[in-house]
Structures are given as structure tokens and as C-alpha cells.
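sry for the spam today, last one i promise. C-alpha cells for design, 181 residues
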């Protein structure tokens, strides 16, 4: 039996690619969620007026990969301290968000956020909200990196983030030292 997890972490192409590499992830889809417009398309979402985030819906086998491990991939794939942007991509559609499908996912997401915050010197701005309708993006966005010759071998998901007990000193480049970015 599989379960779903939905994450928004900036441009969905790279995020989907990262989740596709994880053993136990059975499928991925990129799309739009968290907005107010029915059946949005890329052009409409890019206006920033629909409220949608670019997101990845992950279907996974919880006997092979845990939700906590998927959260670790999510944290590793973006800067959760940037509000409504990731790198050069700016707008609410690029926000950091975890769309939870159950009370247990909410509990684990909140616990993971608290643990991740102990590693960072700036506040995390990631939203944790209930999953709503996920609108699949246009086909040309699906598995984008794979279609364009950017593939990688499957890998194990990282271990869940553990809370630090010592305070974190804010320094330039802290995320780079944690995530190699």
C-alpha cells in the first residue's frame, strides 16, 4: 500500500528529480496546489495571482522509505528561510510548503521543522498546511530533467533531521555548509 506526500520547494523540476531518485518512491508528479483557481496552467500560476505553489506529489511505499526521510529530502533540496522565492525564482508560486495528508504527517512535519530550525540561524518560513486539490502540471513539465538527459542513479533517502542541542551562530553561507549549495 502506498501513501502520498506533497512538497513545494521552489521550481518543481529539480525537486521532483530528487524524489525520483529515492528508493521506495513509486511515482512523482509535478503540479500546482494551495491556490484558488480551478485547473490552473503554468502561465496562469506564473502570474502569482492564483495562490498556487509549484509542488511535487510523491507516492511512496512507507515500508521502504519513511515520511521522515522524505522530509529530509525536502529540507535538503531548498533554502527554507527564503520567503516566496528560491534563488532567482521569485513569487508565491516558489514558496516553501509542506502539504500534509493526515494528522500524523502534520505531526511529523512540525517536528521536522522544529529540528531543522535548530540547524539554521534564520527563521524557517516553510508553511505546513492541509493538502488540497493537486492539479497536475502540463506533460512537458513531468520528469523534466529525465526528458532532457539529466538522470541519476537511485539512492537511499537521508536519515531524518535531528534537533541540535547547542545554539547555532548565524554565519554567511551556513546553508551552503549544510547542503553544499
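last one done:
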Amino acid at each position: 500500500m502506498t501513501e502520498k506526500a506533497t512538497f513545494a520547494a521552489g521550481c518543481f523540476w529539480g525537486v521532483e528529480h530528487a524524489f525520483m531518485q529515492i528508493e521506495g518512491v513509486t511515482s512523482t508528479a509535478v503540479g500546482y496546489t494551495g491556490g484558488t483557481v480551478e485547473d490552473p496552467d503554468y502561465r496562469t500560476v506564473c502570474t502569482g495571482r492564483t495562490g498556487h505553489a509549484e509542488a511535487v506529489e510523491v507516492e511512496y511505499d512507507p515500508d521502504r522509505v519513511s515520511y521522515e526521510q522524505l522530509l529530509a529530502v525536502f529540507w535538503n533540496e531548498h533554502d527554507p528561510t527564503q520567503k516566496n522565492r528560491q534563488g532567482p525564482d521569485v513569487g508565491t508560486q516558489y514558496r516553501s510548503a509542506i502539504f500534509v495528508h493526515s494528522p500524523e504527517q502534520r505531526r511529523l512535519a512540525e517536528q521536522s521543522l522544529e529540528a531543522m530550525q535548530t540547524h539554521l540561524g534564520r527563521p524557517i518560513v516553510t508553511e505546513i498546511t492541509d493538502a488540497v486539490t493537486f492539479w497536475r502540471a502540463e506533460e512537458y513539465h513531468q520528469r523534466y530533467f529525465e526528458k532532457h538527459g539529466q538522470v541519476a542513479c537511485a539512492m537511499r533517502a537521508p536519515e531524518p533531521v535531528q534537533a541540535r542541542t547547542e545554539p547555532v551562530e548565524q554565519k554567511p553561507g551556513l546553508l551552503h555548509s549544510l547542503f553544499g549549495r
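Residues 152-157, 170-179 have pLDDT under 50 and may be disordered. ok im logging off now
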